[in-house]
Amino acid sequence: xxxxxxAVVLSGGVxxxxxxxxxxxxxxxxxxxxxxxxxxAFEQNAYVSEICIVSNPYFLSDVExxxxxxxxxxxxxxLKGGKERYDSSLSAIRAYEGQDVNLLFHDAVRPLVSQRIxxxxxxxxxxxxxxxxxxxxxxxxxxAESNYISNIPERARLRRGQTPQAFxxxxxxxxxxxxxxxxxxxxxxxxxxxxxxxxxxxxFLVRGEESNMKLTYKEDTYLLDKLFQLHSTTAPQTxxxxxxxxxxxxxxxxxxxxxxxxxxxxxxxxxxxxxxxxRSTTSTDVGKREDVAKALAEAAQHYGRIDYCIVxxxxxxxxxxxxxxxxxxxxxxxxxxxxxxHVALExxxxxxxxxxxxxxxxxxxxxxxxAFYSIYSSTKAAIVNFCxxxxxxxEPDGIAVNxxxxxxxxxxxxxxxxxxxxxxxxxxxxxVATAAINTLLGTYTGQVIDVKRLNKNL
Length: 458
Hints:
Elements: E1 4-11, E2 28-29, E3 32-33, H1 34-43, E4 50-55, H2 60-70, E5 75-80, H3 85-95, E6 101-107, H4 115-124, E7 130-136, E8 143-145, E9 148-151, E10 159-168, H5 169-179, H6 190-197, E11 204-207, H7 218-230, E12 233-234, E13 249-253, H8 258-269, E14 273-277, H9 279-282, H10 289-303, E15 308-311, H11 326-354, E16 357-361, H12 374-394, E17 400-406, H13 412-418, H14 429-441, E18 448-451
Parallel strand pairs: 1-4, 1-6, 4-5, 7-11, 12-18, 13-14, 13-15, 15-16, 16-17, 17-18
Antiparallel strand pairs: 2-3, 6-10, 7-10, 8-9
Helix pairs in contact: 5-6, 8-14, 10-11, 11-12
């Protein structure tokens, strides 16, 4: 029987180098704290059976509150760390003393650790007793003495260390037993302890990822935010059963055509009460806040609740900015951006009551401005930032806010702007709607959900 894998999340820092006046593990990005994102990664991994958090003693109650609020089922221990980095590792080693387990030590402030990395580490533990996660060195590394170069190691042999670092408990426990007998003990990571004090144990290397960065300095916050924006979640492409939304009420703006129409049909088929709104069918213009307020009030009065608000309304005029009529520019901004803001503002009180969810739509063009549709791509970029911002603001209200980012999709709006394209190169509205439905059923917030063609039929 294989040992259980325990993820030890090291959260003992105080964030002095971050310069934000708050421990870096509590910095918020994409709707959650960095620590919550890290816990999410291990909570959902099939190889990890348990999570142990080692916390700075001064913030123990904050961590406990966060765990209870997040409903993390795998978190079984919340331990106190110590003054030195290795004190936190020792706290976990002693908590599991005598058990047949593997310990995966991971920095709480590496929130973008991928499932692939965790999987590879756990699989490697089936054959090796010590694991490190590394990347090749891309810069020349210099050894220095007194501001002079003393040596330049061969770059091909150098690696940059990341986490998790994983060990059979008996190995890391023995390594620290030996290390603590050294009066000059000075270590920066757990693999270093094994390499120095148990050289007879080889440390196997697993490939890391550039996105598995560590939040350390204030400048890192901007990079981390951008990585979360680009590191989108991919929703499953499975259709839930026909009772998944029984008793729920969904209001869909832009529900008369394209993805919105398909989404309305699929929500109805899975048990939801659906209110479909658009300019053509209900004279509801999302660009007018009064229209949005009236539509939501009527839906709430009729059904007694609103659980989901989805903004699928959008317009695209593909032409150079200089040749666009100004009235068209204003109208596009009102529909694509102000419409989303109007729905969010007016939906808030209803969704706060039901702990409901907001769902927006962006476009793959949001990552960079595109010639001939500057207004469309810029408003879609704004929607992503808006989604992530209010996800953080409204998380205490119990409202989840996410954004669907589909690849090119076979919709009337696309056909009118791009003409006939090979169907096999486009997503179907059904694939996008399925991803949207699964997002509504998820527990995350502040995420950009990628929808990509998984095969030629999508």
